[in-house]
Amino acid sequence: MATCSPGDTLILPRNCHISAISAMVLSGALPKYIVPEYDFKWDVAGGITPSQVNDAIKELEMEGRKAAALLVVSPTYHGICSNMDEICHICHSYNIPVIVDEAHGAHLGFHPELPSSSLSQGADLAVQSTHKVLCSLTQSSMLHMQGNLVDRERISKSLQMLQSSSPSYLLLASLDAARAQLSENREAIFDKAIDLALEARSLISKIPGISILEFPSFSSFFQIDPLRLTIGVWQLGLSGFEADDILCNDFGVVCELVGTKSFTLAFNLGTQRDHVLRLVAGLKHLSQTSHFSQPVKDEGKNVNHFVCLDDIRISMSPREAFFATKRKVSIRDSLGEIVESLYVLIHLVFQL
Ligand SMILES: Cc1ncc(COP(=O)(O)O)c(C=O)c1O
């Protein structure tokens, strides 16, 4: 709302969080989607590349349109970071502001092993879910801004419109405590979490049938957050959901994110060595009790565009779709119909 007026175009990744779609409903912005690279073997989407951003700007120019802003999700839930430095450079050469959904990156830049923050790479706005990776209370987040491409007064007015006029001092105090915790020991605060994540990687890499998502599995990986560990279990004949059930019920290991072929663990300031040992014990158990098949060769062929999204056309703006009259149909009867949001469609497909 601070960067796009009704009818303006926002460039953003096709698999953005639903909050970005809601922002387009509220502002009336039109999307220009970038389809991220996708790895079928892992069933995981990557980031977006500087050349994809450049192409999107050029395509809009050919249609006589100009982007009002670019929104990037970096890091993704799996910890995959885009090359924000180059992306910001390209956008700024066209005076296009860069907004980063850094929900999973409030810790970036606070250790030499961690990728740099998007602000340090030139982003104009970065939204961080401080509660996800640092120690503030759930629902507390921060919006950072720099430079003068984005109108500060409009940011302030948009926030006034979206937020309660009675802020929670509990949440604000917890944000301040998280900030203080980082600033008091900024050089060493993540040492233990990083060491434990490296130790876990090393122990897990020796377990037969278990894969670890490493940099660079995708050509568009720029960097990966070492504190997100994505573990593939398809060689054991298990889905991420099945592995998660066993790890949770029998070993007390709670995964951050579960997918069809893998699950992701988040290491943070509260992670202890005992957690790593329980995880390794759980994975050894999975490896010993499952049917291990040989790894698939020629990994390069598994990386492709998110082809299932390629032939989806935009029939109306997110705002028009939100206010349009709708009816419910079964997923089987939905062929040829217009869906309000891809998020809803993907949700339905996974329920089948
Ligand atoms: C990529 C991404 N962006 C935004 C959000 C929303 O963050 P919050 O839950 O702090 O509102 C999430 C939540 O999971 C997310 O994964």
Automatic annotation (TrEMBL):
Domain of life (superkingdom): Eukaryota
GO molecular function, one term: catalytic activity
Protein's name according to its UniProt entry: Arginine decarboxylase
Organism, scientific name: Solanum tuberosum (Potato)
Domain Orn/Lys/Arg decarboxylases family 1 pyridoxal-P attachment site intervals: 1-207
Pfam families the record matches: OKR_DC_1
Encoding gene, per UniProt annotation: LOC102585871
Keywords: Pyridoxal phosphate
Cofactor: pyridoxal 5'-phosphate
